[in-house]
Amino acid sequence: MKVVHGFAYASLARDNTWLAAGSDGVLDASIDLAGVTSHADFAHSPFPAPAGTGIGIDIGVTAEVNGFLRAGLSVTDIGSISWSRGVQAIAGTGSMHLDNPMDTAQRDSLEHAVTGTTVPGTPFTTSLPTMLRMGTEVELERIPWVGKFMVGELTAAIDYTQPLAEAPGYRTTGRLAAGLEFRPWHFLPLRTGVGFGGPDHFDFALGFGLRLWVLELDVASDNIGWLLSNDSFSRGSLGLALTLKM
Count of domains in the chain? Predict the structure, then answer.
């Protein structure tokens, strides 16, 4: 169980905006937007009370099927946030017509084409990004008829995640990921993996670790493809983890 605090939120509830440009250079547009915001009072305190509060719950189960196979299932972030501070309802409407870009009066009219209103809103509730997660892991060197042909240790894993609630940054499409960790020596795990679906589409990951006495170092990038193809560049990442065992 977790307590969740939110300090700002904004969402677009209505968007009926359209823009049309003709071959003769005429530009027409209609704007119709409505949204809601909630925010903490940062103007009077650097540590304000949260704008929204909620409770989240994680539940799950894991099982060791046999000496080399493990499986797990969980549902995380079950709950919601209630937003009650600094709630505002915002709306914007207007229209514009431009058929002569050289006309100063028409250009100036664009500055006043949209009118907006902001009024106090009523408290509202949003869902947490509830997620279903399931996966399995196999330690291949422990399978009797496989391990005798292997050098080192090899672990394979596959996971599937499925969002169960609409939330910013989360799509309702599931994501499948698979990974390998090869340990030619115990102190040097080498890792790779791929992921499909979800907001990140396809990812190719690489990483490694070092196990040196009381020191553990892990380095990974979960989207190494951006180094290999500029055409498919979307984002890059580099993760570092350092652990000292006392």
Answer: 2
